[in-house]
Design brief:
Chains A, B: One of its GO terms (molecular function) is DNA-binding transcription factor activity. Chains A, B: Pfam families: Rrf2. Chains A, B: This is BadM/Rrf2 family transcriptional regulator. The structure is a homodimer of 135-residue chains. The first copy, chain A, is mainly alpha-helical and 135 residues long. Chain A is built from six helices and two strands; from the N terminus they run αααββααα. Chain A has one domain: Orthogonal Bundle (Arc Repressor Mutant, subunit A), CATH 1.10.10.10. Chain A is 54% helix and 6% strand. The first copy, chain A, has a two-stranded antiparallel sheet with strand order 1-2. Chain A starts with a helix and ends with a helix. At the A-B interface, helix 1, helix 2, helix 4 and helix 5 of A face helix 1, helix 2, helix 4 and helix 5 of B. Chain A binds a DNA duplex (30 and 30 nucleotides) through helix 3.
DNA sequence: AAAACTGTAACATTTTTTATTACTTTTAAA
DNA sequence: TTTAAAAGTAATAAAAAATGTTACAGTTTT
């Protein structure tokens, strides 16, 4: 999965930020986004791996934030849910005998690296707290 | 089609820039990227619509640049091949009774608009000539 | 013990992207 | 003046990616 992860994860975290003391169930969270609870749990698994949230199993279980909303940036979320933003590559092994084909992907890669650096910089200036305050 | 268009179009234009006086056939171009000629012609149709290239039908026909490589920026290409860069949305109609669900897409949209503005700014500083010179 | 959860793998479905075919039109050259 | 080599384009097919579902094991509270 690539697309969707960032938006789902940010949605989850925004919800958690509004109830910092409660364990929210994947069913409750899924209800807010009209999504299957299993997909929510998959993204929560990723958040746990990154020590952003903790979960409690069993009855009355659920998930809550581990870190302060002011200590989580959108760049953190970007990095843990998205590889890189790209505008596409030449995917069918371009002709190695053509000087353009031979180098196109390398040059695209360089370009996209720049783009991603700028996006990272921008997103690192926005905390989950900032984002959550918009609601 | 969304993905692929930018990379394919940039590849086409880079090739054309290396032979500014020749009409290159879609078959020749497709050969450089190991792609079906029909897909190449589709992207060329888009370039023609934007007055970047012209084509000649019939035997010995093909496509060539209409504009100077120093007058075409990567932002021009971005704008004509890509809607917007996003990190995804909540696509299943999030719950309108949830304050987060109700507003999530609007807030994501705002965020992505910023991202796209910055990408546009960056790409507008790179001409086709600049890019082509890397080969 | 029952109920309400999480965790996760396997599988199914849907959507998007990419590729192909088929056929029309145009032009240059033999 | 016929043939070959090209573009243009619509319709369809195939492949890949994303998303959704089921099923079931494990955990914790009541």
């Amino acid at each position: 999965m690539i697309s969707g992860k960032f938006a789902i994860t940010l949605h989850i975290l925004t919800l958690l930020s509004k109830f910092p003391d409660d364990y929210l169930s994947s069913d409750f969270i899924a209800g807010s986004m009209n999504l299957h609870p299993v997909l929510v749990r998959k993204e929560i698994a990723n958040l746990k791996k990154n020590n952003i949230v903790e979960s409690k199993e069993g009855k009355n279980g659920g998930t809550r934030l581990l870190k302060s909303t002011s200590k989580i940036t959108l760049d953190d979320i970007f990095k843990m849910t998205f590889d890189t933003v790209t505008l596409g590559f030449s995917k069918n092994k371009p002709n190695p005998d053509c000087p353009i084909g031979r180098q196109i992907n390398e040059n695209l890669e360089n370009l996209y690296e720049d783009i991603n650096q700028r996006i990272g910089l921008q997103l690192s200036g926005i905390t989950l707290e900032d984002f959550s305050n918009k609601f």
